[in-house]
Design a protein that fits this description.
5 helices, single chain, alpha+beta, 7-stranded antiparallel sheet, 6-stranded antiparallel sheet, globular
Length: about 240
Amino acid sequence: MNEQNKLSLIGYAILVVVAVVSTFLAVFLVNNTKPDAANSNINSGVPININAIDLNNINLITQPTAFDKFTQLKREGKFITVNEKRIISPQFTVNDQEENNRIALEFLQNNSFVLASTGKISNGYLYIKTAAGTSSEIGTIAQNESVYIYLGNKGGHLFRPNSLISTPSEEGYTQYLFDLSNVSFTSIPYNDSNKSYSDNWLTRLNIVGDSFIGGFVSSNRFGVIEEISIAFEGEGTIVLK
C-alpha cells in the first residue's frame, strides 16, 4: 500500500470515530437535560402561586344539620305527623290568667291525640310549624307569643332560642325543631331572655303504653299549629291511635 492510500484510510477512520462520539454526546445531553415530570414546574422556572388557587371553588364536606337529619328520616318514612289538619288555637284574654288557664285546659281536653310507641327509639326530633295573625293573613308568631305543647302528663311553652332551626318555613311560618332528648321549655309571660329548662321526651316515648299529646299557640290573636311531627331512629316505631 502506498503512502497516499495509507493517509486516506487513516482520515476515514478518524471521521468514523468522530461521528460515533458526536452521536453519543448528543444522546447523553438530551437525556440529561430533559426536565423531570415531577419537578417540571421547578425546573422550568415557573413559580407556583398559592394565592392563585380559588378557595371558593373547593367543595368542602359539610356535616348534615339537625333539620337535614329530620328531613332524611321523613323521606325514609320514620316519622309520624300528629295532626292531619291544622290545629286552630283558642284566643286568650290579655290579663285574666285564671280564665286563660281554664280556656287552655278545656281546649286540650278536646283537642288531644294519642301516640303509642313500640320497641326502642334511640333518637329523634320534634318538629312544629306554627303561625299567628288574622283568619285571612297569618305569619310568624310575635316575640311575646309562644307555643304550648305537652306529652303525657307534662308540658310547657317551647323556648325559641334553643330550637335547632331558627328560619321561617317557605310559607313564612315559625318553625321549631328539638332533639327528643332535649326539648326546651320556659315560663310565661314569654320572652326569649327567660330562663329555660329541658325535658327528655325520648325517655317517655320509650315507656310502654299510650301517651297523650297536644298543643296550642299562646296568643290573643288567631293562632294555628300547622304541623306537629316526630321523626325517630332505632328499632322501635311510633303510631297514632
